[in-house]
Design a protein that fits this description.
The chain is an alpha+beta fold. 34% of the residues lie in helices and 23% in strands. A hairpin with a 2-residue loop joins strand 8 and strand 9. Helix 4 packs parallel to helix 6, helix 12 packs parallel to helix 15 and helix 18 packs antiparallel against helix 19. Keywords: Signal.
């Protein structure tokens, strides 16, 4: 390993490794410049994404860095998600690098400008903040206050800010990618100096302090330092990568223990990416086991049919699978962005077909679907709730995390179509493309309209070389159904699905490989909610448009919650429901629509609440309410079941209509959204719900929206079997609403919802109020599980 790293370093110094650095980190990958996308949905998405990216104002993206470095403002920073200034700029830098690598001149120009500006910022920090800022390059608000105290072990300012390490991680990644995809040496120098700052700023912290800090979302900082180690061979970076590895996740995952229930999903996935990256370089079994087990448990137990995971940004417990069809904050795009990174890393270590099966499914059904096909806007949440919808960002507005990852997602579709290992070429994805395999002198073209047609064709257009072509046998093709012909001669094989068929020969110009990929309809149940099913054709998730009414905020503005589809929730019991005694027959009852590939009707399938729905690829469904998961009931069960949920649905929707604002205490994003303030406060989860409390004079408070209304009440959810003294006061804007005493109040192991009427005088002339729970001395306030501001019924 050290010899290999030394060779890489010497090559870098002598400038003999070529202008593209991609193979220096990921040895089995082809550079983006070597793989060209041909006409098809992915090329369209990539080209549209470039058009969208070029509408952003670079100086506005760069202003957070200039501001923290004390440099004059060139343009005002973007609003929205205030407190996370700078994070999208890092993603944008990555996106510019990816598109510069494939020859886009404007992206290359913007990349060069950003790097020159960032260099000036890094130099300014060294001059103005020598005590803590040498090498620093972040746009984190109040950087000086945070990092000057942090280096001495004082985490107060760090914890008061919004995830500073997560924020700077995005620029770390952007700088690495600028070098990775274009070979830019300025980016490499900025990156490594920034890494050295990260080591210096944590040098005085104990291991216990580091682990305490890692309780805060910190992106993939361990992955970043692992990359720095491979770039340089310097052991200090590998040590830092291990130091930034959160043992609260690493230890159980390495022992095969799933502890993900009710954890913030996208906080955990980048940690696992880093575990696997460390394993790849150090060969340490603990990290390898952790990365592999994390992937297995998320993909097999915690993902939906589209490949995405999480609801309200958290992993629900396995038992809480129905949450997906009740909530509107479904799988988050950032999670899949990071899960695909983890999948690539695992595939490098072990090129197994089941990794690519997941990658392909998620690429088509989640990632591709999160870009609007006309204006290029990005999606944050993809609800699985029947008959709900998604909202899209607009350029220069809504600077969400999923806008940042979305900028990258659509720029690297050519990254995993082909890979190499020793003398083997792996065909992983059936995407129209051309490969220039420079090391072998081979040029090949893949011609396909997959998934609209069940075949693909490879043609060697240049060169002559002996190698093994590894053709993926997807899991969705039945055993023995895959057909391969080389120069019109059928290839025999013994390979099973979810593996690769190996063809070793002397390949030469004019050779043609034809691959037939028969697709079929299959059904998948929602985890722990077997009455809900998803329908797939091959790897493609089928959905159905159900209407365009009430698409509130379809193109989001700069409002704080614009990324959530906040339009009316339609009753679940009135959504289309499949009635079928033998669920295995459902797929066979779909009828293809002539002349419309991948589109189906179901005239022979019994449904209620349905009117001639057309099933089509989910990634084609935009600007509409839709079905992704369907309730499927037997003929004898459905009426009694619907009767039982109809009353519950009516009650839930009535409550939703009365709700002006709500907070889920203990959940990261809702608390940030509602400007949490707290002292001596804790949070946790119980019975699949999150909570927050405060003790011995401590408090917690949230800012809530009233819309100027005065006929309101506050509904608070408590657990009915708490121990200890529970005396506390509830305040509205520092005016006491009530003194409450829950000590021994219910003695019932169930949730208790209590309504408190708010006097109109406390609300008059206000559009927002701050609701505070203050513990009395030697007592606990709460725990509070849910908080709603309601119109009085």
């Amino acid at each position: 390993m050290r010899v290999a790293l030394l060779i890489v370093s010497i090559c870098s110094l002598l400038g003999i490794c070529g202008t593209n650095a991609q193979d220096r980190l990921y040895s089995n990958s082809f550079s983006l410049a070597e793989v060209s996308l041909l006409d098809g949905p992915f090329k369209h998405a990539r080209d549209l994404n470039i058009q969208t990216l070029l509408q952003y104002d670079i100086d506005r993206l760069l202003n957070p860095y200039r501001k923290e470095a004390g440099l004059p403002e060139k343009a005002a920073s973007y609003p929205n998600w205030d407190g996370l200034d700078g994070h999208v700029g890092g993603h944008y830098l990555s996106a510019m690098a990816m598109n510069a690598a494939t020859g886009n001149a404007e992206c290359r120009k913007r990349l060069a400008y950003m790097l020159s500006e960032l260099k000036a910022c890094q130099e300014a920090h060294a001059l103005k903040h020598p005590a803590w800022g040498i090498g620093y390059l972040g746009g984190v608000p109040k950087s000086a206050e945070i990092w000057s105290t942090f280096k001495n072990g004082d985490f107060k300012a760090l914890r008061a800010a919004w995830v500073p390490w997560y924020n700077v991680h995005k620029l770390y990644s952007g700088l690495r990618d600028a070098w990775l995809y274009t070979g830019d040496e300025t980016a490499k120098t900025l990156f490594l100096d920034f890494c050295d700052w990260g080591i210096a700023i944590t040098a005085n912290l104990s291991e216990a302090q580091m682990q305490s800090m890692l309780d805060i979302e910190h992106g993939g900082m361990n992955e970043i330092f692992a990359d720095a180690y491979q770039m340089t061979g310097d052991e200090k970076y590998l040590k830092a990568a291990k130091g930034f590895s959160h043992q609260a996740l690493l230890d159980p995952m390495s022992m095969g223990k799933d502890n993900l229930d009710n954890k913030h999903a996208n906080t955990q996935v980048p940690k696992a990416v880093g575990f696997q990256r460390i394993a790849e370089l150090s060969k340490e079994d603990k990290y390898a086991k952790a990365g592999r087990f994390f992937w297995e448990t998320v993909t097999s137990k915690r993902s939906l049919a589209l490949g995405g995971n999480s609801r309200r940004e958290f992993f629900p417990s396995i038992a809480a699978g129905r949450d997906f069809v009740h909530d509107v904050e479904g799988p988050e795009s950032c999670n899949s962005y990071n899960m695909l990174k983890l999948t690539e890393e695992l595939f490098r270590a072990n090129p197994s077909g089941h990794y690519i099966d997941y990658y392909e499914r998620t690429l088509y059904n989640h990632i591709l679907s999160t870009q609007h096909p006309e204006h290029g806007g990005y999606v944050y949440f993809t609800p699985a709730r029947p008959r709900h919808y998604r909202v899209y960002s607009a350029p220069n507005q809504g600077m969400w995390c999923c806008v940042g990852s979305g900028m990258e997602n659509h720029g690297k579709y050519n990254q995993l179509i082909y890979t190499q290992q020793k003398d083997s070429l792996f065909l992983n994805l059936f995407i129209a493309s051309a490969l220039n395999w420079r090391a072998k002198g081979i040029v090949l073209k893949q011609q396909t309209n997959f998934p609209e047609e069940e075949q693909t064709k490879l043609t060697i257009t240049e060169g002559r070389a002996r190698f093994t072509l590894m053709i993926r046998y997807p899991s969705w093709v039945q055993a023995g159904a895959l057909q391969i012909r080389v120069n019109n001669k059928r290839v025999t094989y013994t390979t099973s699905p979810s593996a690769y068929v190996a063809i070793k020969r002397l390949w030469k110009k004019g050779d043609v490989v034809q691959i037939v990929l028969p697709m079929r309809n299959t059904l998948e149940h929602l985890t722990n909610a077997p009455e809900y099913v998803a329908l797939l054709h091959g790897p493609i998730l089928l959905g159905a448009k159900t209407g365009t009414e009430g698409l509130k905020g379809l193109i989001a503005d700069d409002s704080r919650w614009g990324h959530i589809a906040s339009g009316e929730r339609l009753p679940i019991d009135q959504a289309p429901i499949i009635i079928e005694d033998d669920l295995d027959k459902i797929g066979n009852k779909l009828v293809p629509i002539k002349g419309k590939p991948l589109s189906f009707t179901a005239p022979n399938l019994k449904m209620v609440n349905s009117s001639n729905l057309v099933l089509e690829p989910f990634y084609r469904i935009h600007d509409a309410r839709y079905m992704m998961y369907w309730m499927a009931l037997t003929g004898t069960k459905y009426q009694s079941y619907l009767d039982s949920i109809a009353a519950l649905e009516k009650e839930k929707l009535a409550l939703q209509q009365r709700t002006l604002d709500f907070v889920a205490p203990g959940e990261q994003q809702p608390e940030v959204d509602h400007a949490l303030q707290s002292e001596q406060s804790r949070k946790g989860s119980f019975m699949d719900e999150f909570w927050r409390d405060a003790s011995n004079g401590g408090y917690f408070s949230y800012q809530m929206t009233t819309n100027g209304e005065t006929n309101l009440s506050l509904r608070v959810r408590y657990w009915g079997a708490e121990w200890g003294n529970r005396k506390f006061d509830i305040y509205i804007d520092e005016e006491k609403l009530i003194s409450e005493n829950n000590t021994g109040r219910w003695h019932q192991s169930q949730f208790q919802d209590i309504d408190y009427a708010i006097p109109a005088s406390m609300l008059q002339g206000k559009t927002r109020i701050r609701v505070k729970f203050q513990a009395q001395a030697q007592n606990t306030a709460g725990a509070v599980y849910y908080l709603r501001l309601l119109r009085k019924s």
